[in-house]
């Protein structure tokens, strides 16, 4: 893996949110709910909710990545999961930070597919190898991405107390 990285700053994140929201508006799609994929999609989901004036926000927690370019064999939806019936008949905008392999987005989209009126996907980054192409993409890259919220190590190590 190359040491070269795509770097997203908080300032660029704000730009990405507004430009993605404008793509949604330009397409004519009016979501009833923004469904953020935690953890990476939470900030985007909140930003899109404000930019699109959608107050109905929800989140689903999916674990897939365990480190830099390290992942589980398959993504796992962690509890609590929103009841699919709660989204019945609604137009849903799924928000995530990146569509890398696309397997997380595939899991979430298929989980809700039979219950929603329509689902579209917005991501900050999309990689060429993804199996799920988002409807709204801010940037395309094949590099590892340094997100402003995950570049620095945590202040607390939940497996062993305070981080050093």
TrEMBL record:
Residues 13-152 form the Phosphoribosyltransferase domain. Pfam families: Pribosyltran (PF00156). It comes from the Bacteria. GO terms for molecular function: glycosyltransferase activity. InterPro entries: PRTase-like (IPR029057), PRTase_dom (IPR000836). SUPFAM superfamilies: PRTase-like (SSF53271). Gene3D superfamilies: 3.40.50.2020. Keywords: Glycosyltransferase, Transferase. This is Phosphoribosyltransferase.
